Amino acid sequence: MKKLKKMPKFKNEGEEREFWSTHDSTGYIDWSKAERAYFPNLRPSSKHISIRLPERLFEQLRNIAHQKDIPYQSLMKVYLAERVKEELKTRV
User: Fold this and answer.
1) Containing domain of residue 84, as a range?
2) Residue 10 lies in a domain
3) At residue 52, does pLDDT exceed 70?
4) How many structural domains does the chain have?
């Protein structure tokens, strides 16, 4: 294990950003001891999209959503997430 360099003190975030843009963090941080950080209260970022659907499909989605008493947009997100998860499972 090589000796780590001393982490400099920064006056502000801009100075720190400038430093890390030109330096490799492995010289200053032992990443083998790092632990994954979880932020349970953060909402995942989302992207606004526009999609064209056949009218019949859209009406079917709205009817199912109405029966489940949820917005059709939420139902579409659930259906898409489930399908993507299935696709990713079959690739592994």
Assistant:
1) 49-92
2) no
3) yes
4) 1
Distance CA 82, CA 92 (A): 16
DSSP the chain: -PPPPPPPP-SSHHHHHHHHHHS-GGGT--GGG------TTSPPP---------HHHHHHHHHHHHHHTS-HHHHHHHHHHHHHHHHHHHH-
pLDDT tier for residue 35 given thresholds of 50, 70 and 90: very high
Indicate the pTM of the whole model: 0.53
Give the angle subtended at the CA of 10 by the CAs of 26 and 4, to the nearest 5°: 25
23, 49 contact by CB (below 8 A): no
In a domain, 78, yes or no: yes
